[in-house]
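User: Sequence in, structure out. Go.
Assistant: Echoing your sequence, followed by the structure tokens.
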Amino acid sequence: MRMLRLWIVILSFLTVGDVMAQERYQVGVCDWMVLKRQKLGEFDLARQLGCDGVELDMGSLGKREMFDNKLRDPKEAAHFKHTADSLGIRVGAVAMSGFYAQDLSKKDTYMRLVEDCFDTMDKMGDVKVAFLPLGGSGNDWPTDKAKRAIVVKRLHEIGEAAKARGKRVGLDTPFDAKENLRLLKEIKSEGIAIFYKFQTAIENGVDICEDLQKLGKKNICAIHASNTDGVWLRNDSALNVPAIKQTLDKMGWSGWLFVERSRNVKMVRNVKMNYGNNVRYLKEIFNSYPEPEVALNDKGRDPDYVKTIIGRAQKATDELGITWTVMGQNVTNVIANRYFQLNDIYAERDSLKKEGGEKKQIAEAQCDSKLYRSHFGFDADLQRYLKPHEVERVKDVMTYNVVKVTYDAQCDMIPSLKEEEKAQILLWLKEARELAVDAESSKKKHEVFGKYKGRINNYLAKRGYDLTKEREEWYKRVKARGGQL
């Protein structure tokens, strides 16, 4: 009864449109494209990206007779399924991406490969859609009558096997809607459909909305909702995603949208930034994007100031490559809230000073007390989402990377530093960072480091280093290698 009441409360916050959108569309990523092909970590990554699920690949094929499929092992498959379930991530489709490079008309083990795929789909939770690209069959099969006949015959067999097991195999073809309908008519199997691909429609120069409507909802089993690599989906002038969503709504289509590409070529290897951004955009358009756990404390604050602070906070999540992930949104809000909190503490101090008298006398002490008590709370909030070394990177960004710059400079200036001396220098710089991260301005942050640099210089002088001489020799070395200080 208590659980029933809880669900009633939760549902009361959702509009009918929200619920229908969440039921109609699910957003995921292709595990082989996010560098997690049949790796257990794909489910946690999908969760971080804000996905509903993944398109899980069957493994590479190459010259093998069968896919390199570790999920053939029941124990391994059970482990994968348990992990996915525990993280709330579904397997929306299983892909046979090996056929991007294998000719279906020549791969005589095709039915064994397909049955292997179907078995994996069952193990991963009765998955209904499989992905089969025809790119490996070459450019001649659409026009070579003999070869096309072989491909069609084999696809018919595959389709009938899929139908018998309650599944559909979605084809990735080079065709527009007209030619896809022609192909489906030749195959004559309800177990075969089209795994629609935005990129293909763009390359064919057809309007995606018109193409989708011509193809019809019953012939589309899933969608690869991305273009070729270049820019993120939200910045792609070749795609009108809101219009596509309206078209699919009108058609009454429902199913999975998987991001395959649309990576920013300037950071093509940054998985979290690329796929986090694209997933978030699709979720914004097709569903209500999940609210962050950490609320932004922006009530009553100037919008321009809030925008500036969010931009400052995102410099840290950019550094970690998580800005466009669900986790990144939470971390952004944690950092922004810390900036807001610091601003409030210092504003209160300044206000007390202006009042004069006894309040002026206690202003600094009260400020220091609040800074001390709140400092460790900031650490704890970050540690909910980040590992210790990532928390350090956040603090480095908030303090202009002075720790690294200063430490590297000291080691370069005095190559003969002993390991215990390097450790002491780094320890003091990190101690300075703990104070500087709470300072009220850039100037104050640098003043904190300045005091600790003085301590480091005194320490080194007592250890017998002639800092003036070391610095002069350092300048010469830097100049000789074409650098400057």
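User: And one key feature?
Assistant: The first strand starts at residue 25 and ends at 30.
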